[in-house]
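Ops channel
N.P.: pipeline sanity check, posting one input/output pair.
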């Protein structure tokens, strides 16, 4: 899916207010639908002089925003590898010109080159932050687990509790093989926020 924000007003607002309005005005466009969706799919620039006469134009966006599109220039935003990571559009000249000129196209292309670099850098930074947080969580889990080395039952409970919280699952079970009797000994830790039915002991492993 392709998402873009329609800016309906030109008045300046505080950053938090602008972000709030952007989220409210967010419009989701299916990949390959409309001008923006087509640009995302084909990685080609589209420059239209009369939007409503072009079959690729999706007038539903104008109906949602209350804005009348006459001319439109839509261009892909690409990363270092030339892959499309977004689409930018400019609509209707303010100087009365009936079209976006070749000079407009070239300026827009150069501008979006820097936009693509900025967006990809931001994505890479976000990924590095998320990876750092995941590594910190795993490191803390390892510390907690190894702190219970002297008590098997506490260790197993700790493993299951931490795994359930980390993976956001309803239930976690650890099975240990008892080499003396050939049976699997298990311990279950359900999520306390979710109600579970009683386990049929006849069909389950031995619990302790």
């Amino acid at each position: 899916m392709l998402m873009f924000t329609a800016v309906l007003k030109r008045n300046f607002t505080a950053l938090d207010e602008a972000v709030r309005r952007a989220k409210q005005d967010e419009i989701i466009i299916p990949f390959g639908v409309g001008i923006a969706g087509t640009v995302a799919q084909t990685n080609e620039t589209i420059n239209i002089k009369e939007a409503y006469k072009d079959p690729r134009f999706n007038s539903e966006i104008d109906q949602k925003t209350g804005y009348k599109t006459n001319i439109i220039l839509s261009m892909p935003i690409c990363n270092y590898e030339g892959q499309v990571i977004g689409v930018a559009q400019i609509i209707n000249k303010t100087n009365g010109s009936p079209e976006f000129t070749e000079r407009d196209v070239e300026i827009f292309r150069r501008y979006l080159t820097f936009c693509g670099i900025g967006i990809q850098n931001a994505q890479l930074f976000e990924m590095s932050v998320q990876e750092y947080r995941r590594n910190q969580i795993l490191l803390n889990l390892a510390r907690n687990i190894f702190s219970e080395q002297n008590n098997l039952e506490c260790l197993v409970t700790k493993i299951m509790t931490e795994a359930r919280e980390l993976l956001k699952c309803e239930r976690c079970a650890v099975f240990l093989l008892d080499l003396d009797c050939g049976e699997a000994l298990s311990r279950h830790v359900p999520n306390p926020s979710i109600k579970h039915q009683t386990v049929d002991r006849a069909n389950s492993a031995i619990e302790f």
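N.P.: looks fine end to end. The chain has five helices and eight strands.
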